[in-house]
Design a protein that fits this description.
The chain has about 180 residues and is of the alpha+beta class. The protein contains four helices and ten strands, in the order ααααββββββββββ. The chain is globular and about 45 Å long. The chain starts with a helix and ends with a strand.
Amino acid sequence: MAAWWVMMLTVAAVPGGFERDSCAAAIPDGLRIAVARQFPGYRLPKESDNLPEDIQYNRDHEGGGCLGVAAGDFSGNGRGDFAFLLMSKRDVWLTVAVRGSSSWQVEKVWNAGKPSLRTRLYVDKEPPGKYDDVIQSESDAAPEPGQVDSFTSKSDVVVTGTIESTEIAFFKGPKGWIHVWISD
């Protein structure tokens, strides 16, 4: 009888029953609570937000299956930060959460478009270094707000885009978040 209760508690603790969503497992409870309070009407990523073939490709290449969350030291404070795709019925936002000494600072960084695009969007981290914009160097168009020709980061860099298509690198500079298109 005791074994049955243990099994039921285990299943109840896992969102969706027997299968655990890799995105739910990637986000700490304290951050989950902070996001719910700060952004009502938005939800955190789910593994199923992406296409099954993209999830499988990620797993086959040493990923965890969640394409909507990335962990890294994006602030340079050494505490472990998160970047994720926050979604509502109207839009999708690249969002970065920086772990402070006692709380999370969560910022919407970039509007990634409509929810219908979410199946092909991803977020990842890249190592510190110099990043150059491939779009601005080839275009006479005015840069987007926050777009720069290049930046050098001493901390991890947030990367987002459309799978097999675009890649945009984000870095928090002294005046706010800046970005470069590293693939178009």
